[in-house]
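Hi U.,

Before I forget, here's the chain from the pilot set. I'm dumping it here mostly so it's searchable later in email.
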Amino acid sequence: MRFAVVLALVWRTLQPGVEYTTAGTLHVVRVDPSRAKLSAALSSELHVEPQTAGQWCRRSRLAVAINLGMFQTDQRSNVGYARNGRHLNNDRWNDYRAAVAIDAKHALWVDLDQPHSLEELKRYDIVVQNLRLIAGSRRNVWAANARKWSEAALAIDSHGRLLFLFSRVPYSMREFNAMILAMPLEVTRAMHLEGGPEASLSIHAGGVDLDLCGSFETGFTEHDQNREQWPIPNVLGVVKSGS
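Structure:
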């Protein structure tokens, strides 16, 4: 699949430390964790049923919400390790090789195949492990594969800002990685959050009101007919300014 080369991006400020742009098929929310408060909303912690990303925004006063990660058959637990403060959503680390940790001012991205990587994560408020897409030194680590899907992903740039990424148009992950690396986003690392109809991104701030949902996924929903967000148990979000 070919994608257009984007030479420049026009960013719209949603609230302090939060910006939004589109680039071809891609929606991007850029978050400076030193200026905007990041939060996780988890069904297991709040004792509520899974919600759509839009519902999570309303319930938890979030300006932006995206999938925290893929979840298990219990409809609660992240597939990889996940912790919000003292609440353990999943206390087991698997073989996924990417983790992001967030506190009040910083985001730390760790390649889990590096020595002593887990020790660095203990002091952070939010920690989540997911499938790695792009490793340190901007390495596209996803092997070529014919499988493709709508994609929700998380990345970090060279300035330590987090990028919430969403494409309804399906890509193989090898192609998706190549696309975001070619854009002027300064992506240094990225992880997969969710694919297909469960991939979600909601934006309700700065005059932008979007509830985006995926559809196509090889071997699951091989069509572009899904028009509504699916309920998901866990989201990563940005708290509304003034909340």
